[in-house]
Every structure is written in structure tokens, then in C-alpha cells.
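Page 37, continued from 36.
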């Protein structure tokens, strides 16, 4: 029995020693896990500082780029629709419209009736989605521009550099400038300058710069500035409602070109 007691004591001692050793090993394991966790936390923090922390800035920059591109794309889309439908009005449907009403009637329809109908559609029929607004606006623009084409019959090729290219240049230069500065005076100044440079170059090489040409060039530049000013004030790419109506109204005034003014010295 004493021998058995001695053996039992030794076994207890061995167990205690083993438990002690296991405890030491466990401490080492826990220490290693903690150290690795600390290193992992440091790595995650470094990754966050280098990458994720900049993510909101990246998203904001991307949003600004998309904003600029959407302004340009939307303007070009509308101008293509307007230019094509003016061609239709000038060369295809003009005889039919001539039977129905005179220039004055077409002007009243395009300046008053169509904008009123468009306003009613936007405000009361709740045209909300971007696709719906594009489609509705393209329809009104098509109707207005066909009427404008009738008013300026056989004048499409002559007026395209003014009515279409002016606003394409403005729409292109605006987001390009917006990417570098948000100063309104600089934006409007560069838009006006680029528009006038284009008109002067066009007049110098192709049309001749008489008084009527310079007058219309100045009017188009002023109208382009008004459109950009409206875009800046209302950030219109977020909601097409009245921006597109106003844009087409400005386009209407510019394309009609105060057609009485253009008629000076020219028999239609």
C-alpha cells in the first residue's frame, strides 16, 4: 500500500507537471493568437487607410464624372432629335403644314401650346422615371422642331451650325470645364468664348461675317450661356422635368432666330 501511495503521488505530480506544461503551452498559443490578431488588426487598419478610406472620395469623384457625362449625353440626345425633326419639318412636312396654317400659327403652337401641354404632362401625369422623361421630352421636342422646320423652310443646312453645333460645343465644353472648376464665372466665360470662337471661325471660312451673321452668333452665344446658367442653378441632370422644357424653349427661340431678323435683306 505505501508503494501504491507513492506511485499515486508520483502520478499526481506528473499530472500536475503536465498540466503546468500544458498551461504554459496554452499561454504561448494565446499569446501567439493575440499577436497575430494584433498584426491582422494592424494590416486591416493599413488597408483601410490606403484603400477603403478613399472609397467615399472615389465614389464622389465617379458620381461627378457621371454627372458631367450625363449632361453632355442628354444634351446631344435632345439635339439629335431636334435636328432630325427640323429636317423633317423643313423638307418633308412643310407642304402639309402650309395648307393648315401660316408661320404665325406655327410659332404660336411651338412657343405657347406645346410648352403648356408639356407642363401639364409633367406636372399632372407624374412622369417620373428617367426613361419616361426622355421619351416624353423627345416627343415634345420632335413636335416643336417639326414646327420650327416649317417656319424656316429650306433653311436647315444653313441653320445647323448655329442651332445644333452651338449647343453641342456648349454641352461638350461645360462638363469639361466643370471637371476642373466650379466657379460659375469661369464656366460661363469659357462656354461663351468657345461658342464665339466657333462662330467666328465658321463665319470666316464658310459664311462671311456680315452684320446679320455676327448678330445671330451673339444671340446664340447668349442663349447658350442662359442654358448653362440654368443647368448650374438647378443641377438639371437629376430631374428632367422643367429643364428639358426650358432647354427646348431656348432652342426654339434660337432656331426661329427671330426669323424676321434673318429675313432682312433676304426674300424667302
Amino acid at each position: 500500500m505505501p508503494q501504491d501511495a507513492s506511485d499515486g503521488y508520483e502520478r499526481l505530480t506528473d499530472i500536475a507537471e503536465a498540466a503546468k506544461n500544458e498551461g504554459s503551452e496554452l499561454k504561448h498559443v494565446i499569446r501567439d493568437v493575440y499577436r497575430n490578431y494584433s498584426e491582422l488588426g494592424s494590416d486591416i487598419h493599413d488597408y483601410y487607410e490606403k484603400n477603403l478610406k478613399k472609397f467615399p472620395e472615389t465614389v464622389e469623384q465617379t458620381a461627378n464624372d457621371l454627372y458631367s457625362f450625363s449632361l453632355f449625353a442628354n444634351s446631344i440626345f435632345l439635339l439629335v432629335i431636334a435636328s432630325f425633326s427640323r429636317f423633317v419639318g423643313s423638307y418633308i412636312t412643310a407642304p402639309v403644314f402650309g395648307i393648315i396654317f401660316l408661320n404665325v400659327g406655327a410659332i404660336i403652337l411651338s412657343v405657347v401650346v406645346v410648352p403648356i401641354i408639356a407642363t401639364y404632362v409633367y406636372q399632372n401625369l407624374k412622369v417620373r422615371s428617367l426613361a419616361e422623361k426622355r421619351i416624353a421630352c423627345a416627343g415634345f421636342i420632335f413636335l416643336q422642331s417639326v414646327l420650327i422646320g416649317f417656319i424656316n423652310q429650306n433653311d436647315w443646312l444653313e441653320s445647323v451650325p448655329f442651332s445644333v453645333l452651338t449647343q453641342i460645343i456648349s454641352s461638350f465644353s461645360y462638363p469639361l470645364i466643370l471637371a476642373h472648376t466650379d466657379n460659375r464665372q469661369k464656366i460661363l466665360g469659357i462656354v461663351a468664348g468657345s461658342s464665339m470662337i466657333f462662330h467666328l471661325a465658321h463665319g470666316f471660312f464658310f459664311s462671311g461675317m456680315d452684320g446679320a451673321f455676327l448678330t445671330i452668333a451673339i444671340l446664340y452665344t447668349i442663349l447658350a450661356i442662359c442654358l448653362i446658367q440654368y443647368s448650374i442653378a438647378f443641377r438639371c441632370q437629376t430631374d428632367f422635368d422643367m429643364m428639358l422644357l426650358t432647354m427646348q424653349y431656348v432652342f426654339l427661340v434660337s432656331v426661329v432666330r427671330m426669323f424676321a431678323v434673318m429675313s432682312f435683306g433676304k426674300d424667302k
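The two ends are 135 Å apart (CA to CA). Flag for discussion at group meeting. Residues 228 and 255 are 17 Å apart (CA to CA).
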